Amino acid sequence: MTPVELAPAFFAAAVVILLTCRLVVAVAARFGQPPVVGEMIAGVLLGPSLFGLLAPDVSAAVFPDDLKPVLYVAGQIGLVALMFNAGYEFRAHAGRGLVKSAVAVSSAGVLVPLLFGAGLAFVAHGRVDIFVDGVSVWVTAAFVGVALAITAFPMLARIITERGLAGTRYGSLALASGATDDAVAWILLAGVLSAASGEPSHILTAVGGSLLFVALLLTVGRRLLVWIVAHRTMSDETRLLGTVAALFCCAWFTDIIDLYAVFGAFCIGMAMPRGETSEHLVRTVQSVTQVLFVPMFFTYSGLNTRFDVFADPAVMLFGAAAVVLAVIGKFGGCWAAARLRGEPQAVAVRVGTLMNARGLMQLIALNIGLAAGIVTSAMFSALVLVALVTTVMTAPLLSWLDRRDAKSREADKPQEPTPAVLT
């Protein structure tokens, strides 16, 4: 398709995506799910698993193959804006005493599911037809392990923000742990891609580029942001332009070093100076882009998901086993690490619940693996099931924990003495 043809195709697809997302979000809200979960489900429904199955010709007309890269790029704008806000909020609420606990939780949250996922792949090899011919089982096992180790950090941040948890101990700890968890997981993913391609450049670029990025952000980047925010003669439009330019530069750099754009956006959000002007800039960047563009990424991922592969009992069994091991590894590992660090039970169990959500970042990793030829469409769909289940269960479990604790506090209240009745 030519650019002239792509423009109307994009606008038509955008209308379908946004209206579908609003409808599914409204339905999901009745079941206690946050908007981000509704958008994720809507993306899957718009793919070949439902829309493409019920109306294949209409689906092909609304989402032609040439449009997919455009949806991907549009989705990145929404993700970058979302993570910019998440980084800003994290710095505002993260208190002291989180570092050691966050390192322990994130380490367990990576290592345990990584081992479980790799072990599952080795057990399934030769028994389930979901492996790519010519790709080493070691590479596939490592990829499955990394996929289970990832935490959906942007989704975690959005759930925390939407539920007003950013100022709580477990909300701040989950944000810190999730950021560290995903940074490590993406470096591991770069290593898997290096092993698959036979080139060590991916891992070297990711590690070296990360060190350079942090150094530049702490020196030049912070001074530039302070100047943009504090310059008295600068107009609001110029401040917004400068902020977005700096944001996109960081997203670009972390993307080309194989750490993905969202990490650059999160880091620059943390580097933003505090104050009303910064608050206004962050909210302005996030408000429109998040609403319009984040659903497009979910749709892009949904277009690559086919749940008809579960007609094969072996694939279904693999998917179910992946879900169980993912929950045990991430929830159990993070909960145990938090408890060992001396965190209260109420904090530890909620951190484990939040860290268990994988949706967005796992979808990103799976798309990378699919494009690199590491995974088949069947394995892709099986691991998308993990992303859906672990993310959908997060909000209801948090609500149940809140109700349980509320009942416990009510039961612990001293009872009013019953006045004596004179007879």
Q: Which regions have little confidence, pLDDT < 50, spanning 5+ residues?
A: none
Number of helices: 18
Indicate the structural class.
mainly alpha
Q: What is the CATH first-level class name?
A: Mainly Alpha
Q: What proportion of the residues form beta strands (DSSP E)?
A: under 5%
User: Looking at CATH, which topology would you report?
Assistant: Na+/H+ antiporter like fold
Silhouette: globular
Order of helices and strands: HHHHHHHHHHHHHHHHHH
Description:
The protein contains 18 helices and no strands. It is an all-alpha fold and 423 residues long. It has a single domain, classed as Na+/H+ antiporter like fold (Up-down Bundle), CATH 1.20.1530.20. It is globular. The relative contact order is 0.16. The model has no long low-confidence stretch (mean pLDDT 84).
List keywords for this structure.
Na+/H+ antiporter like fold; 0% strand; mainly alpha; 423 residues; 18 helices; globular; single chain
